[in-house]
Write a structure and sequence with these properties.
Blueprint lengths: L5 E8 L6 H14 L4 E8 L16 E6 L10 H10 L5 E5 L4 H12 L4 E4 L6 H6 L1 H18 L2 E4 L2 H6 L1 H4 L4 E4 L15 H8 L7 E5 L8 H10 L8 E5 L4 H13 L6 E5 L3 H10 L2 E4 L8 H8 L3 E4 L14 E3 L4 H8 L19 H18 L6 E4 L2
Parallel strand pairs: 1-2, 1-4, 2-3, 4-5, 5-6, 6-7, 7-14, 8-9, 8-11, 9-10, 11-12, 12-13
């Protein structure tokens, strides 16, 4: 059995502007590096999704990046993939971050041609949401591209039980399924600021409830539903504040702001935009409640971070991270306006003082060791695990 490992991690982009997938990919690489595993990230970048390697603190991790054609998830980083093809024999395992994209398909094809075992982390791209909203593309791409990639993978990685169940239409073709959470490090966000100090720095009122949405602001996260529910909750009369933080397309952001104004609640909603680590620390320190009415989130690092800060978390039933956070902080609301209006009308306490032992399951060292064991199994077996399903605990 090999004791030294060299792993290629391949994704669409390595940008803090592209949501949770690049951040999870970077933290995965850091977890491997913590076990003295050599890691190279192959990724893309663009004007919309600039390379933000410095934000991810990837000391000791080599990054091969090239211009990205198309969006972060569905785009194609041609030059980086060409480098992967040329260097493929250097690696023991090629780990593909995300599915339902050309980068994954080409990365899997490279692994097959070069006879290198490969793993795929699905990142929620094989669930019902994609099959419903992209049905015409799926009719063509699912049998031609996705199923061959899944069947050839030594293992398929999901981050939650919900994601595994939701993705089973595709995962039934897998040789092996592994469930394991993402590594999550809050070091860059700590220490937590005093709530009133954080609010003062952000220009927020001190004596009102603050609700925080922190994610890529896109249609699949249901910000329009959230704004309508916020209006229906009559939270304005209670002088609450809703922060919708995260990167957004300018046209979509303008649409959301006009919606808030048309509903008469523009003064109670703020759009801080993209949040780097320092702004994120202030937002999490200032807020009382975290909200995420997502249609499809395989995990969500932001939920774990919010719970670490003691925020009550109101989530849709489609957020995988729900199974990992303390249950006294968890509140599930069905994905409709009336359900969210009801929960937004309620008062939820923030828990500033509690044990954070539950965070140990996400440490880079803990997950680095588990991934090292899996990679060693893969490199020693050099074969599939037909119809075998495993869950790492």
């Amino acid at each position: 059995m090999k004791n030294d490992l060299n792993i290629a991690v391949v994704g669409g982009s390595l940008s803090g502007y592209a949501g949770g997938a690049p951040r999870s990919m970077a933290t995965h690489a850091a977890a491997l590096a913590s076990q003295n595993i050599r890691v190279t990230i192959f990724a893309g970048y663009s004007k919309k999704y600039p390379l933000t390697k410095e934000q991810f603190k990837l000391d000791g991790v080599d990054v091969v990046a090239s211009s990205l054609w198309g969006p972060s998830v569905l785009g194609l980083n041609v030059s980086a993939l060409w480098q992967l093809f040329k260097r493929a024999k250097e690696y023991d395992v090629i780990h593909l971050n995300g599915h339902w994209n050309f980068t994954t398909f080409i990365g899997a094809t490279i692994a097959k041609l070069r006879k290198i075992p490969y793993a795929i982390t699905t990142r929620g791209h094989l669930g019902k949401y994609d099959f419903e909203h992209l049905r015409f593309l799926k009719i063509i791409l699912f049998p031609l591209m996705e199923i061959p990639s899944i069947r050839g993978a030594t293992l398929m990685h999901v981050c939650s039980e919900w994601e595994k169940t939701d993705s089973m239409r595709a995962l039934k073709h897998a040789q092996r399924i592994v469930k394991m959470p993402n590594a999550v490090s809050c070091d860059a966000l700590l220490p937590i600021l005093e709530k009133m100090d954080a609010r003062k720095q952000l220009g927020l009122p001190e004596d009102v409830p603050v609700y925080l949405f922190l994610a890529r602001v896109s249609a699949d996260k249901s910000p329009e539903l959230l704004i309508r529910a916020w209006a229906a909750s009559q939270r304005e009369t209670a002088a609450g504040v809703l922060l919708i933080a995260g990167p957004y397309d300018p046209d979509f952001g303008q649409k959301l702001k006009k919606l808030a104004e048309s509903l008469g609640i523009g003064g109670t909603i703020q759009f801080p935009g993209y949040a780097d680590n320092e702004l994120k620390r202030k937002l999490l320190s200032a807020a009382d409640v975290f909200v995420l009415p997502s249609t499809d989130d395989s995990f969500s690092v932001a939920v774990i971070e919010a719970a670490r800060f003691g925020l009550s978390c109101i989530l849709s039933p489609y957020v995988g991270a729900a199974e990992y956070i303390p249950q006294d902080l968890l509140h599930i609301a069905e994905l409709d306006e009336s359900s969210w209006a009801k929960v937004l009308s309620s008062d939820y306490a923030r828990t500033d003082k509690r044990s954070n032992d539950w965070m140990d399951q996400f440490s880079v060292e803990t997950l680095g060791k588990k991934w090292k064991m899996l990679y060693l199994e893969v490199t020693s077996a050099k074969s599939g695990y037909k119809n075998k399903e495993s869950q790492s605990s």
